[in-house]
Amino acid sequence: MDTQWPRYMVFQQEGPDQPVVHNGTVHAPDAELAMLNARDVFVRRPEAVQLWVVLADVIFTQTQEELSTTASINRLIDADPPPAAGRLIDFYVFGKFTQQAQCRHVGEVQATSPQAAVQAAITTLADKQPLWWWVFPVSAVLKNESTEAEPMFSAARYKTFKDQAEYPVVTMMRALRNQKANQKDTENTK
Amino acid sequence: MERTHQYALSGYLIALADDELILGHRDSEWTGHAPILEEDIAFANLALDEIGHAKLWYELAADLLGEDKNRYPDQLVYFREPARFRNLQLVELPKGDWAFSTLRQYLFDAFEALRLEALSQSRYVPLAEIAARIRTEELYHLRHSQAWIPRLALGTEESARRTQAALDALWPYAQALAAPLPGEADLHAAGIVPSSAELFARWSAAVEGFLTEAGLQVNLGAPISDFSRKVHSEHFESLIQNLQSVARLDPEAMW
Q1: Please, are residues A153 and A14 in contact by the beta-carbon 8 Å criterion?
Q2: Which of A166, A190, B104, B245 is the most buried (most CB within 10 A)?
Q3: What pLDDT is recorded for position A70?
Q4: ipTM of the prediction
Q5: pLDDT number for residue B1
Q6: Quick check: A167 pLDDT over 90?
Q7: By mean pLDDT, which of A35-44, A72-81, B73-82, B185-194 is the weakest?
């Protein structure tokens, strides 16, 4: 039996002018605890103005490679019969543009399914094509309330952290060793 | 500030700092042992925050006493005899199970939030400024511990049983939050600190409501017999030995 808690994707915005980017995952029994876990795991040092958590299972991903192969298109057609009365819902669209880059927010689309959302994103959003797309319903996201921003993130701004180099232990150990070696030398020469 | 107030306030601050230090130490015992990795990180964060708050209060006390701000906190923490610590017994009890530690954190955080709110209005400005800064962080602690209570108390049969057992064990100790801190009467009259009894009344109302809503029986059983911060439980001496062991190996060591 899988006793692991579900996985939530964590997205973080580091400054008001920065995009929301994917930062990692946390396990949590529900979204509220995922939010708290996300704060503790990801926001202690780098700054943040906003955190989003979303259940990993609801994220629909498609790579450029998948999009370009017939097999995958067939798979999509099989997997996603178009809904009869297509109700449009809002999707967030994220894209990963290089292997190193984090998946970042590129916009929103309205679509009847995740697959359709990717298609809509391809036609309306991408100035350059990302290596892979992520789409998920706007309604699936838990964001921190703006009133919570201060208690959640302010510590990361004013806390200073000591650099390893600031601990003089290594230097002290070396000095002690030298001192001992010198003592031995003088004893030997006596 | 008047000289008598300086002494009273330094004693008051050391008691506050001792609470934070000892709670932080107990929290740190979860490092590597918490139920999941994320919570391990979270509780280690809490521990660090509490110890950081202790440091701020010790430093302010050092200022008031004309002591060296860089040395005094270490002296108090690493070289004081156990009997001279002024923390509550509530924070020194062994960490227990997850329900026990989380519930203790909640009871303490809920009181801290009220006290820091009041302290941030203090007429002594350096105190008010530090309180405001700590309060921001404590509000997050409260949110974290508060989130856990209903999940434990309304979770499985076992988690409910353990949470109730934790509350039954902690409640008598938590009543000591009502007792005035060292030097409080004078400082309160001077508008420097709030009255613990008044804070306690507000705390009781909020906490009892919240716990009852989470399906817990708030046990109004007899409080512990001695609220004095000069009296410690049987568990305290070994905690201090552990806390001070490294520093006492080489008191002259530089870190």
Answers
A1: no
A2: B104
A3: 56
A4: 0.85
A5: 80
A6: no
A7: A72-81
Rounded average pLDDT over B85-101:
97
Mean pLDDT of A29-45: 90
B250 at the A interface (CB within 8 A)? no
Give the integer Cα–Cα distance in Å for B52 and B73: 11
Which residues of chain A make contact with B137, given a CB cutoff of 8 A? Answer: 151, 154-155
Listing DSSP states for chain B in one string gives --HHHHHHHHHHHHHHHHHHHHHHHHHHTTTTTSSSHHHHHHHHHHHHHHHHHHHHHHHHHHHHHT--TTTHHHHHHHHS-GGG----HHHHS---SHHHHHHHHHHHHHHHHHHHHHHTT-SSHHHHHHHHHHHHHHHHHHHHHHHHHHHHHTS-HHHHHHHHHHHHHHHHHHGGGGSPPTTHHHHHHTTSS--HHHHHHHHHHHHHHHHHHTT------PPPS---TT---TTHHHHHHHHHHHHHH-TT---
- pLDDT range class, residue A124, cuts 50, 70, 90: confident
CA torsion sign, B208 to B210 to B211 to B217? positive
Given CB atoms, is B53 within the 8 Å cutoff of chain A? no
Distance, in Å, from the CA atom of A136 to the CA atom of A134, rounded to the nearest integer, reads: 7
Q: What integer pLDDT is reported at residue A76 of this predicted model?
A: 55
pTM: 0.87
Decide if B42 and A36 are in contact by the 8 Å CB cutoff. yes
Nearest to A32 among B39, B41, B147 (CB): B147
Burial class (CB in 10 A: 0-12, 13-18, 19+), A49: middle
Q: In what order do the strands lie in the sheet with A50-55?
A: A60-63, A132-137, A89-96, A104-111, A21-27, A7-13, A50-55, A142-143
Burial (CB count <10 Å: 0-12, 13-18, 19+), residue B39: buried
At B17-39, the pLDDT tens digits run 999 999 999 999 999 999 889 99
| B146 chain-A contacts, CB cut-off 8 A | none
The token pair at B116 is 């820091």
Residue A152 at interface with chain B, using a CB cutoff of 8 Å: yes
Taking an 8 Å cut-off on Cβ atoms, the answer to whether B45 and A44 are in contact is yes
Which residue in A has a C-alpha nearest to residue B149's C-alpha?
Answer: A33
Q: Which residues contact A125 (CB under 8 A, 6 or more apart)?
A: A93, A106, A107, A109
